[in-house]
Design a protein that fits this description.
Number of helices: 3
Oligomer: single chain
Strand order of the largest sheet: 8-7-10-15-12-13
Distance between the termini: 49 Å
Bound molecules: CU-O-CU linkage, copper (II) ion
Shape: globular
Radius of gyration: 21 Å
Length: 445
């Protein structure tokens, strides 16, 4: 048991489930000691309901209320979370599922899995974590030899590599060797990783039928942790990412950056108990859930899942379906954006190369080239519209709202600027965003 902040006293918060096109009304009563706003992540919403303080609304003061009202045009897996300070790294997150009224019912069952990195109430509050980062750089590495930091390795969340393993408790596993995101995948050394709010020593268990088509809705609600997900004994068929369908693609494991969602179908053809592991990529911890088709003892947190080392989808492996692909065409406007960072000062940035504002006209087709000039990966999230990832080789990549930009890498995205307003564009590492990696895209009507 930990003390944290939550929606309606539960973690994750209450699921909102609607059908595409329906009007949603959510009343938020702020009983927290801090102001907050709520963001409906991934939904192409009207600007004044987007929940970005100082940009689309005034924050909801402690004791005050605010009513959000919007329609969700596109079916898919979304979530909601505060957009104020470091609050995302508390228990304040919840699924938002938009059902497709036209869906043929191709799945027998669905399971929503919210993955999260947890420190609140164990290793200090998220605000304290940010303060420590701004005072001393990465919590994961590079603390050795820093002046005045002696003794801090005893604090959870402030460890060196070794101390990390001690503070991991139930979290297990050695650091993975270099993966697609490099070795430096996060700044915060979390003591715990959870699925649907539960630690790996007490995982959520889902009973599923033998041979059933089970649609997993995976959400990375973490603040500083990419998760690699696999199920023992089965491959996964990815059918959507960030709400939008992709051509169904088989894989053994899926890597999710913070803010990303993947829908994948899994079928279990044997009787027994099957672990689903969400490994904190290159961090040495994991979260666990269990799919059960028959009797058997529950797996422990260290259970071996060979599929974690199997095929891993890269962005170039996914393509949008014909219906979700942007029409052929050339961009009316292209911007290059530099992702910048200074780890020692813990300052992060996102800047228009050549200067000026990020401003486009409604209806324009816009290309953004994200040029990562840092040695760390960043999950970049755009509000208000989804974009298409331009995969290498001119392939029509997936429609997404959050895209991984690898360390020193470049990623190009394109979208039709059809939703007027001032939209946030930022890194979904909440500590990077708070330390400056956010900007505004203006779509002028
Ligand atoms: Cu999920 Cu601007 O955030
Ligand atoms: Cu970042």
């Amino acid at each position: 048991a930990v003390q944290t902040w939550a929606f309606n006293g539960q973690v994750p918060g209450p699921e909102i489930r609607i059908r595409a096109g329906e009007l949603v009304r959510v009343e938020v009563l702020n009983e927290l000691p801090q102001p907050l706003t709520i963001h409906w992540h991934g939904i192409a919403i009207v600007n004044e309901m987007d929940g970005v303080p100082g940009l689309t609304q005034q924050p909801i003061a402690p004791g005050a209320a605010f009513v959000y009202e919007f329609t969700a045009p596109d079916p898919g897996t979304y979530f909601y979370h505060p957009h104020t300070g470091t609050q995302l790294d508390t228990g304040l997150y919840a699924p938002l599922i938009v059902e497709d009224p036209a869906e043929a019912g191709r799945y027998d069952r669905e399971i929503t899995l919210m993955l999260d990195d947890w420190i609140d109430g164990i290793g200090g509050s998220p605000d304290e974590v940010l303060e420590r980062l701004q005072g001393g750089g990465s919590e994961m590495e590079g603390m050795e030899g820093m002046e005045g930091m002696e003794g801090m390795e005893d604090m959870p969340g402030m460890g060196t590599g070794q101390a990390a393993e001690v503070t991991m408790g139930a979290a297990t596993g050695a650091r993975t060797s270099e993966g697609p995101l490099g070795d430096d995948t996060g700044d915060v050394d979390y003591p715990l990783y959870v699925v649907n709010g539960r630690p790996p020593t007490d995982p959520p268990v889902f009973d599923v039928g033998l041979g059933e088509q089970v649609r997993l809705r995976l959400v990375n609600a973490g603040s500083d942790t990419p998760f690699r997900v696999a199920v023992r004994g089965s491959d996964l068929t990815v059918v959507a990412t960030d709400g939008f369908p992709v051509s169904p693609t088989r894989t053994d494991a899926i890597l999710l950056g913070m803010g990303e969602r993947y829908d994948a179908v899994v079928t279990i053809d044997a009787e027994g108990v099957f672990p689903l592991v969400a490994e904190a990529e290159s961090k040495g911890g994991r979260a666990l859930a269990v799919l059960r088709t028959g009797a058997g003892p529950l797996p422990g947190p260290e259970v071996d899942v060979p599929e974690l080392r199997g095929r891993l989808l890269g962005p170039e492996d996914l393509s949008a379906t014909a219906e979700t692909s942007l029409p052929a065409g050339r961009p009316d406007r292209t911007y290059e954006l530099a992702l910048t960072g200074d780890m020692a000062a813990y300052r992060w940035g996102i800047e228009v190369v050549g200067g000026g504002e990020l401003s486009v006209q409604q209806g324009e087709r816009v290309r953004l080239v994200l040029d990562n000039r840092t040695s760390m990966w960043h999950p970049i999230h755009l509000h208000g519209t989804t974009f298409q990832v331009l995969a290498p080789g001119g392939v029509a990549g997936p429609r997404k709202d959050t895209v991984i930009v690898p360390a020193s890498g470049r990623v190009a995205i394109e979208f039709i600027a059809d939703n007027p307003g001032r939209w946030a564009l930022h890194c979904h590492n909440i500590y990077h965003a708070e330390a400056g990696m956010q900007t505004v895209l203006t779509v002028a009507p």
